[in-house]
Amino acid sequence: MPYLSIMKKDRNKPIVQITNHEIEQYALKMTTDESEQVKELVASSDSKLDYIDMLSGNLVGQLLKMLVKISNAKRVLEIGTFTGYSALMMAEALPEDGEIITIEMNLLYQELAEDHFAKFDTENKIHLMKGNAQELITDLNGEFDLVFLDADKVSYSFYFKQSIEKLRKGGLMIVDNVLWGGAVLHPQDEKSAALDAFNKAVAEDERVEQILLPFLDGLTVIRKK
Ligand SMILES: C[S@@+](CC[C@H](N)C(=O)[O-])C[C@H]1O[C@@H](n2cnc3c(N)ncnc32)[C@H](O)[C@@H]1O
User: N or C, which end of the chain has less CB nearby within 10 Å?
Assistant: First the structure.
């Protein structure tokens, strides 16, 4: 069967070009659209900042929403708020009594996120914690159903170690940028080496099962057993 042999031959091809722009645009067209309030948050962020490329975008956003919904998550922890995009996306998927704690250390992003939450998080589900997540994460009480890691890459292993303890059994942890543009294949700098070490530690951790999706910049979905 020629098709199968092509599939087999291609299976070991290294992934370096992770996102094909045209395919990404096509995927976006075929994906549920952002709500009007999320679109307004994007426009507001864009008008106030020179770059908004840290904002995770609709493919990651819809995946987060889907995972919040199908896991029936009620309590979510996010590390790395930026201007509030992914927090607002997840808040839209939460039940009425759900809550998100999101941590941001940059003063300007805190201010923008705060404005956005006051305007768009009409049900008051999002609580912004201002400061360094490396310090604040250790003070968090109670269990979480879902954790989204999207802050400083060199601290991912630390955030994993802290938040896995706070994640309920069966809870999910979503981690963005785990392929770092393919640089984790041959790490040459601190961030790539930290991400590679993080990916390896998760792969060897008996407490979890996980899938690293070679999607956009690489996204791992981890489930605590
Ligand atoms: C990729 S952005 C987050 C994007 C956001 N989740 C979204 O989808 O729009 C990463 C954010 O983490 C913040 N950050 C980095 N290191 C941090 C730390 N140690 N504590 C708190 N926030 C941090 C950065 O200031 C930045 O706003």
Answer: N
